[in-house]
Amino acid sequence: MSSGLLFALGGLGIVVIGGWALVLRAHLIRKVLAINIMGSGAFLILVGAGSMGGGDVDPVPQAMVITGIVVAISATALALALVLRIANATGKPALPEDRERDLMDEEGM
Amino acid sequence: MKMAGRPAPGEPGLLLRTGLALLLAAVAAGVGLALFAEPVAPGLAGAVEAELARSGADNPVTAVLLNFRGYDTLLEIAVLTAALVGVWALGPAPRSKETTPSPVLLGMNSVLIPLGALICAYLLWAGTARPGGAFQAGAVLAAVSVLHILAGRRPRMHLPEAPMRWGVVIGLAVFLAVGLGVKGAGRHFLEYPVDLAGGLILFVETAATLSIAVILAGLFIGGRPEDEP
Lengths: 109, 229
Prior knowledge:
By secondary structure, chain A is an all-alpha fold. Chain A is 71% helix and 0% strand. Chain B is mostly helical.
Protein backbone atom coordinates (compact mmCIF):
# COMPACT_ATOMS: atom_id res chain seq x y z
CA MET A 1 0.00 0.00 0.00
CA SER A 2 1.50 3.33 -1.02
CA SER A 3 1.78 6.07 1.60
CA GLY A 4 -0.43 8.30 -0.57
CA LEU A 5 -3.25 5.77 -0.39
CA LEU A 6 -2.76 5.49 3.37
CA PHE A 7 -3.05 9.29 3.77
CA ALA A 8 -6.14 9.38 1.56
CA LEU A 9 -7.84 6.59 3.54
CA GLY A 10 -6.94 8.30 6.81
CA GLY A 11 -8.42 11.52 5.46
CA LEU A 12 -11.58 9.66 4.49
CA GLY A 13 -11.92 8.39 8.06
CA ILE A 14 -11.46 11.92 9.38
CA VAL A 15 -14.17 13.24 7.02
CA VAL A 16 -16.59 10.57 8.32
CA ILE A 17 -15.81 11.39 11.98
CA GLY A 18 -16.26 15.11 11.33
CA GLY A 19 -19.53 14.57 9.45
CA TRP A 20 -20.93 12.53 12.34
CA ALA A 21 -20.10 15.24 14.87
CA LEU A 22 -21.31 18.06 12.60
CA VAL A 23 -24.85 16.65 12.46
CA LEU A 24 -25.22 15.22 15.96
CA ARG A 25 -23.51 17.72 18.25
CA ALA A 26 -25.53 20.67 19.43
CA HIS A 27 -22.84 23.06 20.68
CA LEU A 28 -22.00 25.44 17.82
CA ILE A 29 -18.28 25.51 18.59
CA ARG A 30 -18.30 21.72 18.30
CA LYS A 31 -20.00 22.07 14.92
CA VAL A 32 -17.34 24.57 13.79
CA LEU A 33 -14.64 22.17 14.98
CA ALA A 34 -16.36 19.33 13.14
CA ILE A 35 -16.36 21.29 9.87
CA ASN A 36 -12.67 22.00 10.37
CA ILE A 37 -11.97 18.31 10.97
CA MET A 38 -13.92 17.39 7.83
CA GLY A 39 -11.93 19.97 5.90
CA SER A 40 -8.62 18.58 7.16
CA GLY A 41 -9.76 15.14 6.03
CA ALA A 42 -10.63 16.47 2.58
CA PHE A 43 -7.17 18.08 2.31
CA LEU A 44 -5.54 14.78 3.31
CA ILE A 45 -7.56 12.95 0.65
CA LEU A 46 -6.53 15.48 -2.02
CA VAL A 47 -2.83 15.49 -1.16
CA GLY A 48 -2.73 11.74 -0.58
CA ALA A 49 -4.55 10.92 -3.81
CA GLY A 50 -2.39 13.48 -5.65
CA SER A 51 0.77 11.61 -4.74
CA MET A 52 -0.56 8.19 -5.80
CA GLY A 53 0.25 8.60 -9.48
CA GLY A 54 3.92 7.81 -9.02
CA GLY A 55 6.72 9.93 -10.37
CA ASP A 56 6.66 13.63 -9.52
CA VAL A 57 4.21 14.84 -6.92
CA ASP A 58 1.32 16.59 -8.66
CA PRO A 59 1.50 20.33 -7.77
CA VAL A 60 -2.13 21.06 -8.68
CA PRO A 61 -3.73 19.31 -5.68
CA GLN A 62 -1.11 20.91 -3.44
CA ALA A 63 -2.00 24.37 -4.71
CA MET A 64 -5.70 23.57 -4.27
CA VAL A 65 -5.08 22.49 -0.68
CA ILE A 66 -3.14 25.69 0.13
CA THR A 67 -6.07 27.67 -1.23
CA GLY A 68 -8.46 25.47 0.73
CA ILE A 69 -6.60 25.92 4.00
CA VAL A 70 -6.74 29.70 3.74
CA VAL A 71 -10.43 29.64 2.87
CA ALA A 72 -11.09 27.24 5.76
CA ILE A 73 -9.31 29.57 8.19
CA SER A 74 -11.31 32.60 7.10
CA ALA A 75 -14.59 30.66 7.14
CA THR A 76 -13.77 29.39 10.64
CA ALA A 77 -13.07 32.90 11.88
CA LEU A 78 -16.35 34.18 10.43
CA ALA A 79 -18.22 31.19 11.92
CA LEU A 80 -16.68 31.79 15.36
CA ALA A 81 -17.64 35.47 15.21
CA LEU A 82 -21.22 34.40 14.37
CA VAL A 83 -21.20 31.88 17.24
CA LEU A 84 -20.13 34.64 19.63
CA ARG A 85 -22.95 36.86 18.35
CA ILE A 86 -25.50 34.06 18.77
CA ALA A 87 -24.25 33.28 22.27
CA ASN A 88 -24.40 36.96 23.24
CA ALA A 89 -27.87 37.45 21.75
CA THR A 90 -29.55 34.29 23.03
CA GLY A 91 -27.40 33.25 25.96
CA LYS A 92 -26.67 29.83 24.48
CA PRO A 93 -24.29 28.84 21.70
CA ALA A 94 -26.78 26.61 19.89
CA LEU A 95 -29.21 26.73 16.98
CA PRO A 96 -32.85 27.50 17.85
CA GLU A 97 -33.95 23.85 17.51
CA ASP A 98 -31.10 22.73 19.79
CA ARG A 99 -31.76 25.17 22.67
CA GLU A 100 -33.20 22.48 24.93
CA ARG A 101 -30.40 20.03 24.38
CA ASP A 102 -27.54 19.18 26.71
CA LEU A 103 -24.74 21.07 24.95
CA MET A 104 -21.95 19.30 26.75
CA ASP A 105 -23.11 15.84 25.59
CA GLU A 106 -22.40 14.23 28.91
CA GLU A 107 -24.23 11.09 27.84
CA GLY A 108 -21.57 10.41 25.27
CA MET A 109 -22.26 9.32 21.66
CA MET B 1 -24.88 10.51 33.89
CA LYS B 2 -28.06 9.12 32.40
CA MET B 3 -28.38 5.56 31.26
CA ALA B 4 -28.88 4.88 27.58
CA GLY B 5 -32.47 4.45 26.51
CA ARG B 6 -34.97 7.03 25.43
CA PRO B 7 -33.14 10.09 24.18
CA ALA B 8 -33.73 13.33 26.04
CA PRO B 9 -36.02 15.89 24.34
CA GLY B 10 -34.37 17.39 21.30
CA GLU B 11 -31.62 14.78 21.20
CA PRO B 12 -31.14 13.14 17.80
CA GLY B 13 -33.19 9.99 17.51
CA LEU B 14 -32.27 6.55 16.26
CA LEU B 15 -33.67 7.29 12.80
CA LEU B 16 -31.39 10.32 12.32
CA ARG B 17 -28.36 8.42 13.58
CA THR B 18 -29.05 5.46 11.29
CA GLY B 19 -29.63 7.68 8.29
CA LEU B 20 -26.46 9.65 8.98
CA ALA B 21 -24.44 6.45 9.46
CA LEU B 22 -25.73 5.10 6.13
CA LEU B 23 -24.98 8.39 4.37
CA LEU B 24 -21.44 8.57 5.74
CA ALA B 25 -20.85 4.90 4.90
CA ALA B 26 -22.00 5.58 1.33
CA VAL B 27 -19.64 8.58 1.06
CA ALA B 28 -16.76 6.52 2.46
CA ALA B 29 -17.51 3.64 0.10
CA GLY B 30 -17.72 5.93 -2.92
CA VAL B 31 -14.46 7.78 -2.23
CA GLY B 32 -12.78 4.53 -1.18
CA LEU B 33 -13.77 2.85 -4.45
CA ALA B 34 -12.43 5.81 -6.40
CA LEU B 35 -9.14 5.57 -4.48
CA PHE B 36 -8.72 1.88 -5.25
CA ALA B 37 -9.77 2.23 -8.87
CA GLU B 38 -7.21 1.19 -11.45
CA PRO B 39 -5.51 2.60 -13.37
CA VAL B 40 -4.46 5.78 -11.58
CA ALA B 41 -4.86 8.83 -13.81
CA PRO B 42 -1.50 10.39 -14.75
CA GLY B 43 -2.24 13.70 -13.02
CA LEU B 44 -1.10 17.13 -14.08
CA ALA B 45 2.53 17.04 -12.94
CA GLY B 46 3.72 16.55 -16.52
CA ALA B 47 1.58 19.38 -17.91
CA VAL B 48 2.82 21.78 -15.21
CA GLU B 49 6.43 20.73 -15.82
CA ALA B 50 6.06 21.38 -19.55
CA GLU B 51 4.78 24.94 -19.07
CA LEU B 52 6.87 25.84 -16.01
CA ALA B 53 9.51 27.74 -18.00
CA ARG B 54 6.84 30.11 -19.36
CA SER B 55 5.13 30.73 -16.01
CA GLY B 56 7.56 33.19 -14.41
CA ALA B 57 8.09 31.00 -11.33
CA ASP B 58 10.48 28.10 -10.78
CA ASN B 59 8.45 26.38 -8.08
CA PRO B 60 5.59 24.36 -9.61
CA VAL B 61 3.20 25.06 -6.72
CA THR B 62 3.76 28.82 -7.03
CA ALA B 63 3.35 28.57 -10.80
CA VAL B 64 0.02 26.81 -10.37
CA LEU B 65 -1.18 29.22 -7.68
CA LEU B 66 -0.25 32.51 -9.27
CA ASN B 67 -0.30 31.75 -12.97
CA PHE B 68 -2.03 28.58 -14.22
CA ARG B 69 -4.85 28.79 -11.71
CA GLY B 70 -4.67 32.49 -10.90
CA TYR B 71 -8.46 32.65 -10.70
CA ASP B 72 -8.43 30.35 -7.65
CA THR B 73 -5.98 32.55 -5.83
CA LEU B 74 -7.74 35.77 -6.81
CA LEU B 75 -11.06 34.44 -5.54
CA GLU B 76 -9.37 33.09 -2.43
CA ILE B 77 -8.16 36.58 -1.54
CA ALA B 78 -11.69 37.79 -2.29
CA VAL B 79 -13.02 35.18 0.17
CA LEU B 80 -10.56 36.34 2.83
CA THR B 81 -11.59 39.95 2.31
CA ALA B 82 -15.27 39.01 2.40
CA ALA B 83 -14.78 37.05 5.63
CA LEU B 84 -13.21 40.07 7.31
CA VAL B 85 -15.99 42.33 6.01
CA GLY B 86 -18.47 39.82 7.47
CA VAL B 87 -16.73 39.85 10.85
CA TRP B 88 -16.61 43.66 10.87
CA ALA B 89 -20.30 43.79 9.98
CA LEU B 90 -21.15 41.77 13.10
CA GLY B 91 -20.10 44.55 15.38
CA PRO B 92 -17.21 46.19 17.15
CA ALA B 93 -14.29 44.18 18.43
CA PRO B 94 -14.59 42.83 21.95
CA ARG B 95 -12.72 45.10 24.32
CA SER B 96 -9.43 43.58 25.32
CA LYS B 97 -8.62 43.70 29.02
CA GLU B 98 -6.21 46.40 29.97
CA THR B 99 -3.52 44.39 31.63
CA THR B 100 0.19 44.86 31.63
CA PRO B 101 1.64 42.04 29.55
CA SER B 102 4.10 39.77 31.26
CA PRO B 103 7.76 40.67 30.85
CA VAL B 104 8.36 37.22 29.38
CA LEU B 105 5.94 37.96 26.52
CA LEU B 106 7.48 41.37 25.93
CA GLY B 107 10.98 39.91 25.93
CA MET B 108 9.95 37.12 23.54
CA ASN B 109 8.25 39.67 21.32
CA SER B 110 11.37 41.79 21.03
CA VAL B 111 13.08 38.75 19.53
CA LEU B 112 10.21 37.08 17.68
CA ILE B 113 8.67 40.09 15.97
CA PRO B 114 11.79 41.16 14.03
CA LEU B 115 12.63 37.52 13.36
CA GLY B 116 9.09 36.89 12.09
CA ALA B 117 9.28 39.86 9.76
CA LEU B 118 12.56 38.52 8.40
CA ILE B 119 11.09 35.02 7.91
CA CYS B 120 8.12 36.58 6.14
CA ALA B 121 10.38 38.39 3.69
CA TYR B 122 12.41 35.23 3.10
CA LEU B 123 9.32 33.06 2.48
CA LEU B 124 7.92 35.61 0.06
CA TRP B 125 11.18 35.73 -1.88
CA ALA B 126 11.75 31.97 -1.72
CA GLY B 127 8.28 31.28 -3.11
CA THR B 128 9.38 31.73 -6.70
CA ALA B 129 11.92 28.90 -6.58
CA ARG B 130 11.35 26.84 -3.43
CA PRO B 131 8.43 26.00 -1.14
CA GLY B 132 7.10 29.26 0.24
CA GLY B 133 5.00 32.07 -1.13
CA ALA B 134 2.43 34.69 -0.28
CA PHE B 135 0.23 32.57 1.96
CA GLN B 136 3.02 31.20 4.10
CA ALA B 137 4.64 34.63 4.34
CA GLY B 138 1.31 36.28 5.14
CA ALA B 139 0.58 33.71 7.84
CA VAL B 140 3.95 34.35 9.50
CA LEU B 141 3.37 38.10 9.37
CA ALA B 142 -0.11 37.57 10.83
CA ALA B 143 1.43 35.53 13.67
CA VAL B 144 3.76 38.46 14.35
CA SER B 145 0.75 40.78 14.46
CA VAL B 146 -1.06 38.43 16.83
CA LEU B 147 1.94 38.50 19.19
CA HIS B 148 1.82 42.28 18.94
CA ILE B 149 -1.91 42.29 19.78
CA LEU B 150 -1.40 39.89 22.70
CA ALA B 151 1.08 42.38 24.12
CA GLY B 152 -1.80 44.86 24.22
CA ARG B 153 -1.29 46.69 20.96
CA ARG B 154 -3.02 46.69 17.62
CA PRO B 155 -1.42 46.46 14.22
CA ARG B 156 -1.93 49.86 12.70
CA MET B 157 -0.21 51.28 9.73
CA HIS B 158 1.02 54.65 10.84
CA LEU B 159 0.57 56.21 7.46
CA PRO B 160 -1.49 59.34 7.13
CA GLU B 161 -5.05 58.56 6.12
CA ALA B 162 -4.21 54.87 5.83
CA PRO B 163 -6.18 52.93 8.41
CA MET B 164 -6.37 49.17 8.46
CA ARG B 165 -8.94 48.91 5.69
CA TRP B 166 -6.41 49.93 3.05
CA GLY B 167 -4.21 47.04 4.08
CA VAL B 168 -7.24 44.75 3.90
CA VAL B 169 -8.12 45.56 0.30
CA ILE B 170 -4.69 46.17 -1.24
CA GLY B 171 -4.06 42.50 -2.10
CA LEU B 172 -7.35 42.08 -3.93
CA ALA B 173 -7.02 45.47 -5.60
CA VAL B 174 -3.49 44.88 -6.89
CA PHE B 175 -4.36 41.38 -8.08
CA LEU B 176 -7.43 42.66 -9.94
CA ALA B 177 -5.53 45.62 -11.40
CA VAL B 178 -2.72 43.37 -12.65
CA GLY B 179 -5.21 40.85 -14.00
CA LEU B 180 -7.07 43.56 -15.91
CA GLY B 181 -3.87 45.38 -16.88
CA VAL B 182 -2.43 42.42 -18.79
CA LYS B 183 -5.55 42.13 -20.91
CA GLY B 184 -5.41 43.15 -24.50
CA ALA B 185 -3.11 42.12 -27.36
CA GLY B 186 -4.96 38.81 -27.53
CA ARG B 187 -4.41 37.92 -23.88
CA HIS B 188 -7.15 36.98 -21.48
CA PHE B 189 -7.80 38.19 -17.94
CA LEU B 190 -4.87 37.12 -15.69
CA GLU B 191 -2.85 35.81 -18.63
CA TYR B 192 0.57 37.32 -17.89
CA PRO B 193 2.92 38.14 -20.76
CA VAL B 194 5.73 35.57 -20.58
CA ASP B 195 8.62 38.03 -20.21
CA LEU B 196 6.91 40.04 -17.43
CA ALA B 197 5.37 37.10 -15.55
CA GLY B 198 8.10 36.79 -12.91
CA GLY B 199 7.95 40.42 -11.85
CA LEU B 200 4.17 40.58 -11.93
CA ILE B 201 3.89 37.43 -9.80
CA LEU B 202 6.27 38.88 -7.19
CA PHE B 203 4.36 42.19 -7.21
CA VAL B 204 0.99 40.45 -6.75
CA GLU B 205 2.45 38.18 -4.07
CA THR B 206 3.88 41.12 -2.10
CA ALA B 207 0.54 42.91 -2.01
CA ALA B 208 -1.24 39.64 -1.21
CA THR B 209 1.16 38.93 1.67
CA LEU B 210 0.44 42.30 3.25
CA SER B 211 -3.32 41.84 2.83
CA ILE B 212 -3.34 38.28 4.11
CA ALA B 213 -1.42 39.33 7.21
CA VAL B 214 -3.71 42.30 7.93
CA ILE B 215 -6.84 40.23 7.28
CA LEU B 216 -5.77 37.28 9.46
CA ALA B 217 -4.80 39.68 12.26
CA GLY B 218 -8.15 41.43 11.81
CA LEU B 219 -9.96 38.10 12.06
CA PHE B 220 -8.05 37.45 15.30
CA ILE B 221 -9.23 40.78 16.70
CA GLY B 222 -12.72 39.43 16.04
CA GLY B 223 -14.64 42.56 15.19
CA ARG B 224 -14.47 46.03 13.76
CA PRO B 225 -11.70 48.02 15.43
CA GLU B 226 -12.99 51.12 17.18
CA ASP B 227 -11.34 53.68 14.95
CA GLU B 228 -12.51 52.06 11.70
CA PRO B 229 -15.68 53.59 10.32
